[in-house]
């Protein structure tokens, strides 16, 4: 199986969808790659499939031989499931490492695990990198966006390779060293939270057109396709348009009509929320998207409830196509604003000094959430940013002025027709919360003091105060 020894520039362990594609991308860019996989039989199959690039690869089933095949100091990239499998692989490979070697976890890992592993590596002479990779199989093969967290030493070793294989936006590689330990995986997690929100809002518009508008999948797909020429232009709209216009070979129906309405999830959306809540951040659009995937899994309950619970009104006029397009743009802006606020809070919490402009820039190509909006966000972050808030950047305010009225109209139609638009509605409520100088939390404080003597601050005096509340009979 071995085709050459000792001189590989990098090792890739885990030849599933992502690992195979990244190994081929690296070989395509002229790097020599050692590859290995838990299921050893797959190594030979992969090398056969990788021809002619296999000439630059060496396959080793044995871990010691795999490590030996890589030139020192070694860079070893793991593309395997997060959590326990990664811990087991670290334990298994560490005995074969030497001073200066770096292990890279390129999977979707919980950044808390990455921080723990990075700390465990401190003082060992080995290095640990948590690297978020986005772009799916196609991106991994031809140019992903990558978010690197780890030591400066590891970045120096890794940089030429990841810059060579990354997607490019106007010639610039969509990869950067974002900070130490868990910074890269945290940014990837929030990327996925934004991805969940964007996917959900697109699905909501599809649902509104299908259920309130009784439109066929192909027609909705054609509408989405037309939006690719405007400000909504993005990979996710492109994918959705193409999926809606794809016909199932078995039935001749639109394929989306035969796909069960239960969405999978592997954890990154939920992690985004958990970390947001820990830092006191509201990420209501992302929460709605995670919650909607949860509702999707409760199919039997939904089927049972449909004939029992009162519905919305029929016959309401649908929003115009322009309104739907602008509502989605507003939702996308607000979903990103929530994500970037979480990144900003984490940057402070963990002293990462995250460069939010740079993060927007490396998301402009290669990754799943790439969109023309990210170019606007990158420029907004590089320009005047009142109170450090993306949503207050003049460029973003100008965009919101054009699309918030549409979001209001679309949410109103969803409410009256009884078509659930949880992420779009949450985005609008989040927007209306942030722009309201005097909110309604004075009522919460009155309730808390009434039942629990928690005290409240007054608008006209310093200090903590209590109400002279009446006794309830
Ligand atoms: N698919 C995607 O679009 C993206 C995936 N990711 C992340 O990349 C990582 C890999 O995903 P993907 O390539 O899609 O997954 P696949 O299921 O296609 O491949 C998984 C790989 O991990 C190996 N593996 C599974 N369990 C273990 C274990 N316990 N110990 C060692 N190796 C193991 C498998 O080996 P074997 O062949 O023996 O089963 C296989 O090589 C995941 O963390 C995922 O979240 C990140 C971005 C995008
Ligand atoms: O990281 C990714 C894209 O950026 C992966 O495709 C990930 O699996 C998506 O998350 P989920 O499976 O929970 O939808």
Nutshell version of this structure?
With 473 residues, the protein is of the alpha/beta class. The chain has 20 helices and ten strands.
What would you note in describing this structure?
- Homodimer.
- It is an enzyme of class 1 (oxidoreductase).
- Pathway: Carbohydrate degradation; pentose phosphate pathway; D-ribulose 5-phosphate from D-glucose 6-phosphate (oxidative stage): step 3/3.
- With 473 residues, the chain is α/β, with parallel strands linked by helices.
- It folds into 2 domains: 10-181, Rossmann fold (3-Layer(aba) Sandwich); 189-434, N-(1-d-carboxylethyl)-l-norvaline Dehydrogenase, domain 2 (Orthogonal Bundle).
- The protein is 53% helix and 9% strand.
- The protein has 20 helices and 10 strands.
- It has helices at residues 17-28, 41-50, 63-68, 84-93, 111-121, 136-142, 152-165, 183-212, 217-227, 235-244, 255-258, 268-278, 284-297, 299-305, 321-349, 356-362, 372-382, 394-417, 422-434, 441-452, and strands spanning 10-13, 33-36, 57-59, 75-78, 102-105, 127-134, 145-149, 168-169, 172-173, 175-179.
- The strands form 2 sheets. The chain has an 8-stranded mixed sheet, with helices on both faces. Strands 8-9 form a two-stranded antiparallel sheet.
- The model is unreliable at 1-5 (pLDDT under 50).
- The protein binds NADPH dihydro-nicotinamide-adenine-dinucleotide phosphate and ribulose-5-phosphate.
- Ribulose-5-phosphate (5RP) binds next to helix 8 and helix 12.
